[in-house]
Thioredoxin domain-containing protein
Amino acid sequence: MRNTYIVGLIAILAVLIASTSHQTRAQSPKGYSVGEAIASFSLKNVDGRMIGPANYQGQKGLIVVFSSNHCPFSKAYEDRVQELNRRYSSQGFPVVAIMPNDPSAYEEDSYEQMKTRASEKNFSYPYLLDESQSVAKAFGASRTPHVYVLKRSGDRFTVEYIGAIDDNPQDASGVQRRYVEEAVNNLLAGRPVAVTTTKAIGCAIKWKNM
């Protein structure tokens, strides 16, 4: 009888440990590594269209920016993200922005507010809602902004850079290193990316309670 009780207790503990481990992984996704191909996705843009990597098969790559409305870091970078799209979309590396936050945490991050922000700021790139947060978790995004530079290889997109846009989120005029620009310029020149990862500086993504 005692042995049966012990075996049952061990089984219950094993289930609890597995459940806790799963929740931790869900809230702290590992995400893609440099050199890894991403899975396809399709998310709703502020104009109602569904957009994903399949829409960019004619491009050389993508600059994927996880961003949000409420975060002051994201707001500080909006003009710089616009400039990245202006400079590189014509060279085959357009920007795609994705809003991953749970809007119940900040009303400013709602889909309606996304549409308003995109209109007011005249975004020249798609601004997609990751309502299920599955894309952010697949990438391993943890901050807004958090940037991934992708290179197209056939019908796949592989990760070539992960991290910050540059080294000065507070002051655009004080930037010394432009990490995303460096990565894209290297790829356009047919060279490997010199700096493949940096630390993303911004607001923590607001995950839904699972």
Remarks:
- Residues 1-28 have pLDDT under 50 and may be disordered.
- The longest strand covers residues 146-153.
- The radius of gyration is 19 Å.
- Residues 2-27 form the longest helix (26 residues).
